[in-house]
Amino acid sequence: MTVLIAGLVIFFAVHSIAIVSPSWRERMVRQLGEWTWKGLYAAAALLGFALIVWGYDLARQYPLVLYTPPPWLWNVALLLLMPVFPLLLATYLPGRIQIAAKHPMLLATKLWATAHLLVNGTLADILLFGSFLVWAVADRISLRHRIDNLVPQIPRSPVNDVVAVVVGLAIYFAFGRWLHSWLIGVPIITT
Fold it and tell me: Is the pLDDT of residue 46 over 90?
């Protein structure tokens, strides 16, 4: 569990700099240069992510079950997960979805984390998915009080919404049918 916690601390420390101290972040960018800052940021985030993956795998070998969710929550989780990939794509494909969601990646993160908390009841699950949920809520709240660095995007178009939904749902289906089992080791859709 220590490796998982260390990974979460590193990953979210890096991802929370703009929440906690945007002025310090801007000073570092000016002092180090944008590309050096991005490189250090990416290296720390990747280290944290690698520790999360490794630590979660270690924790799953000896799970501490805190609750056992009822089977019907799987259906609720599958419904909550359905818009996740379209929302992630809408982050980079500006259209009406992006306008309605305001911050589609954060909404996708909240839906993803909530769905996983509904169907996974071990301590490692609560630490992992709960951390992502808390961070996404905190980041969304902080965005009301700061200017967000805009993600480079293609021009706004209604076609982007169609692409986000169609491709996002295709990824959702592929992930549920094959990729989750292959990457995570847990099958989702078995029929």
Answer: yes
If you write DSSP's letter for every residue of 77-134 in order, what string do you get? HHHHHTTHHHHHHHHHS-SHHHHHHSSHHHHHHHHHHHHHHHH--BHHHHHHHHHHHH
| Residues 139-166, mean pLDDT to the nearest whole number | 80
Query: What is the structure's pLDDT at 152?
Result: 59
Dihedrals φ, ψ of 122, to 5°?
A: -90, 165
- C-alpha–C-alpha distance, residues 86 and 160, integer Å: 10
* Encoded tokens for 2: 């220590």
Residue at which a domain ends, from 62, 78, 110: 62
What are the contacts of 141-145 at 24+ separation with CB within 8 A?
142/18, 142/19, 143/103, 143/106
Cα separations in angstroms, 174 against 121, 123, 143, 170, 178: 25, 28, 32, 6, 6
Rg of the chain (C-alpha set): 18
What would the pLDDT profile of 53-72 be if each residue is shown by its tens digit?
999 999 999 999 999 999 99
User: Which band of pLDDT confidence, cut at 50, 70 and 90, is reported for residue 180?
Assistant: confident
106, 190, 189: which is closest to 151 by C-alpha?
106
Domain ranges, residue 83? 63-191
Domain match, 109 and 161 both: yes
pTM (predicted TM-score): 0.88
